[in-house]
Amino acid sequence: MSEWQLAETFRSTSGDVRWGSLGQPGQDPVVLLHGTPFSSYVWRAVARSLARRYQVFVWDMPGYGASQMSAGQDVSLAAQGRVFTEMLAHWGLEEPLVVAHDFGGAVSLRAHLLHGARYRALALVDPVALAPWGSPFFRLVGEHSEVFEQLPPALHHALVREYVTSASSPGLHLAVLDRLVRPWLGDLGQAAFYRQIAQADQLYTDEVQDQYGEISIPTLVCWGQDDTWIPVAKGRELAARIPGARLEPIAGAGHLVQEDAPAELTAALIAFLQNPR
């Protein structure tokens, strides 16, 4: 498995952001947003496929993956929405195609509805968008993050592996699982893992979910039919709230659709991005 590297750095208001691009400059731009507790790595197969006809921009949000992790860092949805608008300005993208997964879905929606970010089309993949969200485990950790931060490293490692594994329906290749877990290990990573959960307040989607009916850009909602983190019923509800949005269920996929069904997801995205409607 080839390594996934982000060669560029941007200094955002929430810390240094690592980013990269694939494909030829000048091609139609597509921006991919990852979710939590993941990184741009989950987009590697989709990004490489899209790069045949688009210039694809990928980035690790502050506090995730290869980007800066630091004590006291603001990694909330509010901060990430602002950072995304900064990234778009840095890239010089005025109206890109945007594809966003999980937490990244909320980031893209907040940037569009609150910060004036413009997209030519938006594809949302199992996004965090409608209340209530967050599993009982997620809420427990958020309420007691200072306790979980003190777990012995071996127990923390086991917890993160189990949590990440549960995002997949058929199960993750061990090398992929290791790669997804790696950023959250060590003193810096362990603290960052619990920090991002502690700051994941539903308030940030409550602020915008009543505005989904104002979205006028072409929107596709993709959803893993076997998602146990956010049930597909939320996908149907979200698609019904956004005017003209279409729901694309993806069979055999859990929450991590990019890992469970990359070919099916890529096909759905290419069909939409070529002819948004």
UniProtKB/TrEMBL annotation:
GO molecular function: hydrolase activity
Signal sequence annotation: none
Keyword line: Hydrolase
Keyword set includes Hydrolase: yes
Gene3D superfamilies noted in UniProt: alpha/beta hydrolase
SUPFAM superfamilies documented for this protein: alpha/beta-Hydrolases
Domain AB hydrolase-1: 29-262
Presence of keyword Transmembrane: no
A UniProt-annotated Pfam family: Abhydrolase_1
Name of the protein this chain belongs to: Alpha/beta fold hydrolase
